Amino acid sequence: MAEGGTGEAAVRRGRPGYDQATVLRRAIELFNRQGYDGTSMGDLAKDLGLSKSAIYHHVPGKEHLLAAALDEALDGLSAAVDSAVADTAGESAYTRLQTVVRQSVEILVAHLPAVTLLLRVRGNSEVELAALERRRAIDEKLAGLVQGAVDEGALRADIDPDLISRLLFGMVNSLTEWYRPGGPVDAPVLASAIASLAFEGLARPEAR
């Protein structure tokens, strides 16, 4: 899952009472609340009710937790985008773009804390730089998919495809600022609403 062996598999098997997933979840919560640089391994140990020395029986270090969190945020989207670009089903670029928009919303909702952390990364370490590089690769593939839809005549050609892609997925990413699981709108409904807004606009059909 992780590139270079720095992902969730690198988190050591925890002592009884704390599995890898639990330790990672709590670490992501702290990173989001206090900032990655402002969170120490001592903070995580305290949050888990462990001694500062005992935390290292659960994880090898803070950077490994960050790598696992960023991989979690990126892996699902990378797979969805790669599948859309591959076009194994012979669908139009426009249809594949719509699909990946819907999937990206559902992936974000399913991994909201990790995606929130990803969007705050600024490239202050090798782990963060690697995550940003993966994001750039995803952005390039998405822009290519937008260009494909423009070439088909399905999307307007007077706006740069890269700008369309940034605006489109910027709207998706903005969910991290306000969406909270357990609210009145579930992921499939939210994905449908965003896709409809993005591809059909706000005007009523009879007004267009």
UniProtKB/TrEMBL annotation:
<keyword id="KW-0238">DNA-binding</keyword>
<dbReference type="InterPro" id="IPR036271">
    <property type="entry name" value="Tet_transcr_reg_TetR-rel_C_sf"/>
</dbReference>
<dbReference type="InterPro" id="IPR050109">
    <property type="entry name" value="HTH-type_TetR-like_transc_reg"/>
</dbReference>
<feature type="domain" description="HTH tetR-type">
    <location>
        <begin position="17"/>
        <end position="77"/>
    </location>
</feature>
<protein>
    <submittedName>
        <fullName>TetR/AcrR family transcriptional regulator</fullName>
    </submittedName>
</protein>
<feature type="DNA-binding region" description="H-T-H motif">
    <location>
        <begin position="40"/>
        <end position="59"/>
    </location>
</feature>
<dbReference type="InterPro" id="IPR041490">
    <property type="entry name" value="KstR2_TetR_C"/>
</dbReference>
<dbReference type="Pfam" id="PF00440">
    <property type="entry name" value="TetR_N"/>
</dbReference>
<dbReference type="InterPro" id="IPR009057">
    <property type="entry name" value="Homeodomain-like_sf"/>
</dbReference>
<dbReference type="InterPro" id="IPR001647">
    <property type="entry name" value="HTH_TetR"/>
</dbReference>
<keyword id="KW-0805">Transcription regulation</keyword>
<dbReference type="Pfam" id="PF17932">
    <property type="entry name" value="TetR_C_24"/>
</dbReference>
<keyword id="KW-0804">Transcription</keyword>
